[in-house]
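Lab notebook, page 48
Experiment: co-folding of the full assembly
Goal: obtain a model of how the components sit together before planning crosslinking
Operator: M.T.
Materials (sequences as entered):
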Amino acid sequence: MPARAVNDFTIRVATVNGSGSQSSNLVLTNAIARLGIPVAPKNVFPSNIEGLPTWFDVRISALGYQCRARHFDVLVALNAATWQQDVGGVKSGGAVVHEEVFPCKGDTLREDLSYYAVPFTALAKEHFADKGDLRKYLMNMIYVGVVAQLLEIPLSTIEEALRTQFRSKAAAVELNMSAVRIGVDYVQQNLEKHDPWRVVPMSGKIDGLLFMEGNRAAALGCVMGGCTVAAWYPITPSSSLCEYFIQYCDRYRVDPQTGNRSVAVVQAEDELAAAGIVFGAGWAGARAMTSTSGPGISLMAEYAGYGYFAEVPGVIFDVQRAGPSTGLPTRTMQGDLAFAYTLSHGDTKHIVLLPATVAEAYEFAMAAFDLAERFQTPVFVLSDLDLGMNPWLTPPLQYPEGSFDRGKVLGADDLASMKSWGRYRDVDKDGIGYRTLPGTNHPAAGFFTRGTGHDEEARYSEMPDVWERNLDRLNRKTETARTAVPPPVVSEKKSTKVAILAYGTTHHAVVEARDFLRDAGVEVNYLRVRALPLPPEVAAFIKRHDRVYVVEQNRDGQLYGILRTELPTYLIGRLQSIRHYNGVPIDAHAIIDPLLAEQREPAVVAE
Amino acid sequence: MTANLNIIGLAREVYKGLPTTLCAGCGHNSITNHLIKALYEYGVEPHKLAKMSGIGCSSKTPAYFVEQAHGFNGLHGRMPSAATGAKLANRELVVLGISGDGDTASIGLGQYCHMIRRNVDCTYIVENNGCYGLTKGQFSATADVGSTQKGGKANEYSTIDVCGLAIELGATFVARSFSGDGKQLVPLLQAAFSHRGTAILDVISPCVTFNDHVGSTKSYAYVKEHDIVLHTADYIAGGREITVDYEPGTVRDVELEDGAHVLLRKLDVDYDPTDESSALRTIHESRERGEFVTGLLYVDTHQQDLCAREHMVKQPLATLDEETLRIGREDWDKMMRPLTET
Ligand SMILES: Cc1ncc(C[n+]2csc(CCOP(=O)(O)OP(=O)(O)O)c2C)c(N)n1
Ligand code: SF4
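Observation: model returned without errors.
Model output:
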């Protein structure tokens, strides 16, 4: 029996889009977590509403690895169209639960797998003839029963998970439980388990955790960060961020007596308008955000540059998907890093936050509003589909302690006590001027915000020295930002000179890869970049290493490119780029394999 | 109140801005002067005024009046969204948008439509010269079919009538005027300030440099000859007595949301500005005749503006603090219970 067979394998559920398998998938996931076993679900779905293949992987990992596993061991095959392909992908020794009518002989039959044929359709027809549209959902719950029985998940645990799923609605729980029991009974009466895969309750690994998607966490960050104006245009995988924000606002931003709302959310006509609303609102003093994905930030480019140059705060969430154009709209990538960092024409450099976890999606959302106001500039939060739309196990999010950092804002009283002020004067030598908000009741408060060249007093100017001075000051602001953005997370042992550098969700594959490499005798240090502009710790870290593998999920090595532009030349030769870009989240072997190959045959490094 | 101070005690000087950098004689400059008069007489508080604009000669206008006020010279065609954001952030602001016909009817057509659709509370002026001034004379989408460029080239494409379009989209205040007609424009501007919702003012404003020749339908001479004035207007601020100094029966009194009135003095037509289809018909027919009808074309004082529809709190969103905005601790802890969310 493989050692991995208990609490360490991956289940793949293969279904058809629109078949309503999402709740059964989540019930199964939740049930396994309730046994104390770490799980990492990944939904791989098509850009389509109904009829195309979709897969849901539940990685079960006693060690707590959260990244995608490259292979799967247990298949629940419910899609006739992908049946052959799905069976072909099961790891040798794996188990297959399938709809009885799928052909299991001849070409498809792999003798290295265990098969469990279940007449799902017939069972659903027989038991739920009167349930109409509900029948397809109930049929999916039958598979939950089958899998629960085969993996030895207690029925009571499934019932708890159902209660979570249906928010304790007794009738729904009872009905779905009856479907689960049909699956359990079928296995008991007709099948004999002849595979090693099963789960066993454990403790200590995920106590106190809850499931949450990154987009939900980011939405909560927006609420707690004091966002009062949101403007958006629907695009997968970012839509749920604003939808969650609306949900929370409906609940917590409405005065129960008057029905008045302390928030405004506009579904804009396009991303350009969304950006305009954000910067208009940011200029007038509100904390404003929009959420989008790659195609949306292209449209926002001109306003992003305006916001940078006219120095107007605004928060832009980019939940990345695979591009360009529509690309793979429901797949994941870290493809917008270079674009977002310098989004717009001319010399532009934005603050970009790079959350890797649900907790960071929440914390960075809050931080984004503070940074935007403190630096009076657009702030991008770049997550991706994997973080944004998949549920992850996370510690409860922390209630914020501090208050908003509204940055350098002068009120009427401040102005009254000042001899003079200029909007773009660098009084504190940090590149950040003082601003006033429209509505400030003082004759000196008003100034003209423009995208044209302007001097320290916000007066129109095309003078070469004025222009240059202004750009230099903006650069000074960037330098200040380097030390104010979330610093990198470093995990380092002095004994090795080899390191990995990564950001965002790639992190989870790095964690697993490092353990694997350690077992293989290769110790690697690790630095996780959490923001641009690059904080000084990054160069210092690279200096301490001979070889630094820059791991990311795009074809061209975008962070690698930024490092090559911004690092001192003598450090560049130490970098080696490792990329993964097929649209599904990176797995540990995408790092391990090229890294080991490199280690065996290191390229000649010019120092 | 002394003779030259307005109702909030400010001198006319306060409503002036920087010296214009537009061509001498540009219609936009006349509009600026009428605006200064309108804002001064209306008594707009400078610190509450948000001057928003896009890009173009027209969009430079906000620099030339009320220098004390905050200005936002945004992107080409994308001012309506910024104006929307500013109003949402601080609903106490008096939002005044200034745009060109290229800005509004070409690159910004989408935002123009959606601002109207949302009925954002603002005054939106289109300084309409039928051409692109700042990029040197290309046709805009409001150029009339058959009208010519300075070099003689005729426009073959149909025109977008920003007033007709606005009414079609459900605009709640639509007026057309001429930069040379301060008598009509000033009270219309004041009525627009009083209106709660998007007030569209399409002001024909000849470009003396690129579009003031024979063959242009937006030249001074052409507009002067073909301007059909539906009515001149008087603006009576809310709470003030309406004095009637004209023959009864030749005036129409439109009461605005804040209690102000605009009195339309009829000259030669019997016109009802609350009748949507007759407004559209009037615009169509005048265009067919190659004329510009000017005056308050359409008004609807019964629609809610964006902030009202969104049920926003009265206090500006920009000033709300942590205590008001954050979820309470108890609710938070409830939400963060382990394994409850999927
Ligand atoms: C995205 C973008 N495209 C093009 C331009 C160039 N541009 C500047 S002003 C202008 C036309 C302005 O015309 P209009 O709005 O009619 O104003 P006018 O100058 O006639 O008053 C154009 C095309 C620009 N600034 N931005
Ligand atoms: S080019 Fe035309 S629109 Fe521009 S300032 Fe000169 S006259 Fe006015």
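Interpretation: The two ends of chain B are 66 Å apart (CA to CA).
Next step: discuss with group before ordering constructs.
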